[in-house]
Amino acid sequence: MTNSTVISELQSVIIQEAVDEVYINLPREKYGHLIEAIVHLCEEQGIIVRVWTDMFGLRIAKPQIDELDGIPVVTIRSGPPDGWQIIAKRMIDILGSIVLLVLLAPLFIVIAGLVKMDSRGPVFFRQERVGFNKRHFWILKFRTMVTEAEQQQQALERFNEVNGPAFKIKNDPRITRIGRFLRRFSLDELPQLVNVLVGEMSLVGPRPLPVRDVQHIDIQWHRRRFSIKPGLTCLWQVNGRSTVDFENWVRMDLDYIDKWSLGLDVRILLKTIPAVLKGSGAY
To answer: Residue 41's closest CA among 91, 86, 6?
Structure first.
């Protein structure tokens, strides 16, 4: 099997499956070029790589020495490292989502009543999204479209107004009257606090993409946005939302991943409130 065949098959696997880590146990002197190609492929998509020997030429990822069953390996990590800050982030997510769900319960009841009165169908909308390391989960939102919206999307693809794999129409005919108001102020996203509470999302992180959008991603480095848990808000949310093209959207996500800290999360959360109240760029 040639090196190009190995890379092609590995790329196919990590695109289609949820892959947490890739472990390399090959002699450097014989398979140096193949090892380097595998590392760069995984680095591009934010997948952890564990190898037996030193690596070089890393553009984004940071290596560290670990042990696996008592054997020293080099871990090459493109996302935030494990540690107390990640634990603290999860604790903030749990406490924050519980507090907000309790405080916002009366608002949930009001919105549920408005959605029910405005159009036929359920109050909530569930959609399969792609999250951390490309794991699929079901996101929860207040319903803002007619019940047949997903079945109608294929007929509307030619009206897509954004570049790249994302799908958005400013005056989408599927959106209900109350749905347009909820979207403008991101109130439809509030039920995702449940996704945060159960650990599928975080309060801050790249917005989770629908399966349809991920299937249309054709630039491999865009997939590194999956190397951290998705969130309710991120840099995209506070910097124009739907007015930002997909390329810059992803660059913001990667900038967040590369510079992540608890302080950055706090700053984004504080900026989210005025951005949402302003309602610009949301549709």
So the answer is: 6
